[in-house]
């Protein structure tokens, strides 16, 4: 899930995206999501293994990861986050983890200091972020439909 056009498309700095109630894995490689510029609120998702990273960013993105369950793969990268370093924007980025849970050695590299960005939803856009203990059951039916030519979806 790539959020943002390309590194040269500065207008994406106004982008605001919510990624919620998803089950990622076990065979996802990266970009769950990858954010260029802009802001993403990632909440109540289940990450069941990844190869390179789960959440990444470049070009000064802001991220609030909230009440997600990250289960690292048995082999490979245990780090949840990735950020592009060495671009012209420097290393300015904001990644925050709030009430996330980590299993099997998973870890999240956060911004040092600073305040956690708020999603600033309008009243009709808001939703309740549930406790991370409920994420497995909340995302149990997430994903592609299991349909066949002879079944009704």
From TrEMBL:
Domain Pectate lyase residue range list: 1-91
Keywords: Calcium, Cell wall, Lyase, Metal-binding, Secreted, Signal
Subcellular location: Secreted, Cell wall
Organism superkingdom: Eukaryota
Gene3D superfamilies, per the entry: Single-stranded right-handed beta-helix, Pectin lyase-like
A biological process from GO: pectin catabolic process
Lyase keyword on record: yes
Co-factor binding comment: Binds 1 Ca(2+) ion. Required for its activity.
Pathway this chain belongs to: Glycan metabolism; pectin degradation; 2-dehydro-3-deoxy-D-gluconate from pectin: step 2/5
Enzyme Commission numbers on file: 4.2.2.2
GO molecular function, one term: pectate lyase activity
SUPFAM superfamilies, sorted: Pectin lyase-like
Keyword Membrane: no
Cofactor(s) recorded in Swiss-Prot or TrEMBL: Ca(2+)
Catalytic activity: Eliminative cleavage of (1->4)-alpha-D-galacturonan to give oligosaccharides with 4-deoxy-alpha-D-galact-4-enuronosyl groups at their non-reducing ends
UniProt cross-references to PANTHER family, sorted A to Z: PECTATE LYASE, PECTATE LYASE 18-RELATED
Family: Belongs to the polysaccharide lyase 1 family.
Protein name as annotated: Pectate lyase
């Amino acid at each position: 899930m790539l959020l943002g056009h390309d590194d040269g498309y500065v207008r994406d700095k106004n982008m605001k995206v919510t990624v919620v109630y998803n089950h990622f894995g076990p065979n996802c490689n990266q970009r769950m999501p990858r954010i260029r510029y802009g802001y993403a609120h990632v909440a109540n998702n289940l990450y069941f293994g990844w190869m390179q990273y789960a959440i990444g960013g470049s070009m000064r993105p802001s991220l609030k990861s909230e009440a997600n369950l990250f289960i690292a793969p048995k082999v490979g990268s245990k780090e949840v986050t990735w950020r592009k370093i060495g671009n012209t924007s420097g290393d300015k980025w904001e990644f925050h983890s709030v009430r996330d849970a980590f299993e099997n050695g998973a870890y999240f590299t956060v911004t040092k200091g600073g305040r956690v960005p708020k999603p600033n939803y309008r009243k009709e856009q808001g939703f309740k972020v549930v406790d991370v203990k409920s994420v497995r059951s909340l995302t149990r039916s997430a994903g592609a439909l299991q349909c066949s030519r002879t079944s009704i979806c």
